[in-house]
Amino acid sequence: MSKQPLPQPVLDRNKRTQIQVDPNHGLWGFFNSSRKTLSTEEEEEAKGRPWTVEELRHKSWEDIHSLWYKCCKERNRLATESKERRRMQISVRSFGARSRDRTIRHTQAKIKYALTERWYAWEEAWKLAENDPEVNLKADLDTPAYQPSSFEDEEEVDEQPQAAAGAA
Q: What are the backbone dihedrals phi and psi of residue 155, each rounded to the nearest 5 degrees, phi first?
């Protein structure tokens, strides 16, 4: 195809150039923390439990977002190791990896559940705010969205039920 000859591989290890790799490169996320190709069963079983919905309810949006992507990275790492085991024809029973993947999927399902709960709570709050005269849903940055009525108006409303109770 080309008139230029193909480069020949350098077979002698002493003649090869050493390539410097950034220790924080994103592709290291496909390997375990020790940057080995495959994890041992003990390393896989040493991982923790799935998060509960109750724990996730108390987390901020940023924390949940970060946890979701850590789960994605971990599942990618496990899939990379599984593919590498098949490629190398290593017949190791990887119960730890399957169990770990199931744990991560449970955490991701619970994240979805917690976020769905937040969505429904937000939707209900929006419906309440639409009917509340003190809330301005069309407010911009210059006007406050919440404009409480004065304290005297609230006192007059409270006195009416007491007067009706005294007359009975």
A: -65, -45
